[in-house]
Amino acid sequence: MQKSITFKNANITFSDVGKGTAVVLIHGFLENSSMWNDVSFELEKKNRVITIDLLGHGKSDCLGYVHTMELFAETVEAVLKHLRIRKCILIGHSLGGYVALAFAEKNPQKIKGMCLLNSTSNEDDEERKKLRTRANKMIQNNFTAMVRMSFTNLFDKESSIIFKNEMKSALEEALKTPIQGYIAGQEGMRIRTNRNYVLTENNFKKLLIIGEKDPVLDFKTSLEEAKKTNSKVVVFPNGHMSHIENKEQLISTVKNFVKCC
To answer: What is the pTM of this model?
Structure first.
């Protein structure tokens, strides 16, 4: 059952199930908390699991046209404060990983462990920054086509065939994202800073789950990042959408990570 709080006059929707160690699941861009349904079902058997709809996604409101990673992180902090959770494990997919890092930068004492799922502590390179700016201009004229293109580009070619039905369902959720949420999220990701030091300077458990065929994040760069930040790394054989392409492996890996924290 979803609940909500008010943050800066915006409605923030979340769920809170199970008992035990608090595990916070943060979705990616054009996603919402429903992406975690299968993962949450397994984790909540022995843990307290919190999923949050980020600003401009799912049933949460927008706040202007720039959702910075810091602003996203403040909403996570507000939910955890409301739930009186003092320490947690953060698992963030793509954009969710950027948000987790921003949260940890401000609240390192509240983190027991952090898993970046198909995500990175690096900032965007110049080419990707230009792509985000271009996407925000184009989205205003053809929303459906742009969301469809942005979303399908997250899957490698083989996965788009094998997981056709799952991809269709996820795309339907992505199309529920408001234009304002799309623009605000893209701009926030474009201007985010490098947060390698959040991983290197803190002693909480760190895990990077990376896709060997990830069309968004360069595989070799991700391996170098894991080494540079002293983070454990797990490699899945597919692309950017591990919760769909490698679901069983993901559930097993995440359960083991939570136990280690």
So the answer is: 0.97
